[in-house]
Amino acid sequence: MKKYQYIIFDIDNTLLDFSRSEYYALQKVFATYGVVFNEKTFNQYKEINHDLWDQLEDGKISKDVVLKERFKRFFLANNIVVDGVLVDKQYRGFLEKRNDVMGGAIDLLTQLKSDGYTVFAGTNGVGRTQRKRLASAGMTDLFDDLYISEEVGFEKPDVRFFDYIFNDAQLKDLSQVVMIGDSLSSDIEGASRVGIDSIWFSNGAETSEKKYTHKVDSLKDVLALV
């Protein structure tokens, strides 16, 4: 018996291996501007990027600021002046060439579709980039619809992101809806704010936070919960 009918999946590091794709794309970007790619510079960029995304999720800045500033600040810290918008476009170009898939993702989506679930993607990100990556991975047709923050106009965990999905898909009984994602701060927090169940895909991580309804360490464990 189905516990849920409508499943909203996060994309990055839930269905697509963003970490692997990002690693590849950053190597290309750093090389383009003559910065050595190593643990120090990689972590330096990630700290700057994460700080900006945290501010975005808190509603303090817009996505345009994130995309404009992250590479500008990183390269400036390495004594290189760049056009942040241009570098971000180059970075996303490299990112779009990747189709790194999380283990079990295709099998899970295929099974859910076969079993009659309504499956949505609910992701923060740039519309063109996310759509191209999903298409390259052969996932697009496995979703009933794609909801991407740039196109929706709001970022998870903003309740308006989820309300947009509920209204657009005409979801009335929210007890039949579950959000699945790896991010406690956007996926799980967002689900908590709008009062829907959530499945935290932990990737083996631990936390004392208990806002999620269920936890899985592997995508193959999702079927038993839905």
Automatic annotation (TrEMBL):
**Which taxonomic lineage does the organism of this UniProt entry have?**
Bacteria, Bacillati, Bacillota, Bacilli, Lactobacillales
Q: Which GO terms describe its molecular function?
A: 5'-nucleotidase activity
User: Would you tell me the protein name for this molecule?
Assistant: Noncanonical pyrimidine nucleotidase, YjjG family
Question: What is a single Pfam family found in this protein's UniProt entry?
Answer: HAD_2
Query: Which NCBIfam families has this protein been placed in?
Result: HAD-SF-IA-v1 (TIGR01549), HAD-SF-IA-v3 (TIGR01509), YjjG_YfnB (TIGR02254)
**Domain of life of the organism in this record?**
Bacteria
